[in-house]
Write a structure and sequence with these properties.
- The protein has about 325 residues and is an alpha+beta fold.
- The chain folds into 3 domains: about 55 residues, Arc Repressor Mutant, subunit A, CATH 1.10.10; about 200 residues, BirA Bifunctional Protein, domain 2, CATH 3.30.930.10; about 40 residues, SH3 type barrels, CATH 2.30.30.
- The chain is built from 8 helices and 15 strands.
- A hairpin with a 2-residue loop joins strand 8 and strand 9.
- Helix 1 crosses helix 3, helix 2 crosses helix 3 and helix 6 packs across helix 7.
- The model has no long low-confidence stretch (mean pLDDT about 90).
Length: about 325
């Protein structure tokens, strides 16, 4: 690992602490000049590092430069096997994650980007992904579950994202079935799950869950200006990413013990909505969420349960 990465890893674990050039040189067995060059390289990459007289270097608490070192420091113990890749700009984190799956035999990984050129949501819709104000990440899984069971992973991601936002910003978001987070009636987070399925066995071989969060985005394209919003709180995005990644893997490891919270966060109960299952359209009242995260809808034609589909208005 390059010296600058070693220094960044150390500083990320103790943000706001001063490290003298001598201490860093002795710790990593290099010269003070090598430390100085490494710190300047980190500054050139955009990290907020302050040199305090002859006392040393300090990583600012306000540093929001995405880095694998910062994410790993925030993840803590238990996630050493998770591969973390950082991109300044990418077509989409889901596409990057799928490429990773074809190139490497990874079981758990996360791709995190500062911006996406072709970010997308469900049904091919664009997901606005400007640099510096949002968090765009994809988590890689190898679930070995049936395709029908896969819907639970999307719901689990919604809860993991909601928990992460609340823990890092204090802002409580609500879930719109099955995969969107809302704040004040506007969407602040979208989730897109894509799976590679073995059609002979009906099992999901691999899965990529993409999560896009508007963290401090203020200006949106005209067509989504009245529908989208941001969390509106400054928070280190690496910490937010780590909370989401760790939270999702914990939910999965705990055998999806999250349904009660999912139901509590869902704001559609008792609300009349429009719904499409892809071939038919319905209008009815949301009666609940099933044990498989199905949407239960009461209509004039009776009660229906949907594992997949789209809420067209609410």
């Amino acid at each position: 690992m390059p010296l600058k990465n070693d220094i960044l890893t150390l500083m990320e674990t103790q943000r706001g602490r001063l490290f003298s050039g001598t201490v860093l040189a002795e710790r990593f067995g290099v010269s003070r000049n090598a430390v100085w060059k490494a710190v300047n390289a980190l500054k050139d990459e955009g990290h907020l590092i302050t040199a305090v007289g002859k006392k040393g270097y300090m990583l600012s608490e306000e540093n929001d430069r995405l880095s694998a070192e910062a994410v790993r420091a925030a993840l803590g113990a238990g996630f050493d096997d998770v591969k973390i890749l950082i991109c300044n700009e990418v077509d989409s984190t889901n596409d990057a994650a799928k490429r990773l799956l074809t190139e490497e035999n990874v079981s758990r990984a996360a791709i995190i980007a500062d911006s996406q050129l072709c970010g997308r949501g469900r049904f091919g819709r664009e997901f606005y992904s400007p640099a510096g104000t949002g968090l765009y990440l994809s988590v890689v899984l190898r679930p070995d579950k049936s395709f029908r069971e896969a819907v639970m992973y999307t719901a689990a991601a919604a809860v993991a994202a909601a928990r992460a936002i609340e823990r890092t910003t204090g802002v409580s978001t609500q879930i719109k079935w099955i995969n969107d987070l809302y704040l004040g009636g506007r969407k602040v987070c979208g989730i897109l799950t894509e799976a590679d399925t073995d059609f002979e066995t009906g099992r999901v071989r691999s899965m990529v869950i993409g999560i896009g969060i508007n963290v401090t985005t203020v200006s949106f394209p005209e067509e989504m200006a009245d529908k989208a919003a941001s969390i509106g709180r400054n928070v280190p995005r690496c910490r937010l990413a780590a909370e989401i990644i760790g939270g999702l893997y914990r939910i999965i490891d705990n055998e999806f013990d999250f349904l009660d919270e999912y139901r509590e966060r869902c704001f559609l109960y008792g609300r009349e909505i429009g719904f499409s299952d892809g071939s038919r359209s319905f209008r009815g009242t949301v009666a609940g969420i099933g044990d498989g995260c199905e949407l239960i809808l009461d209509t004039d034609l009776g009660r229906f349960s949907f594992a997949h589909g789209e809420i067209t208005d609410f």
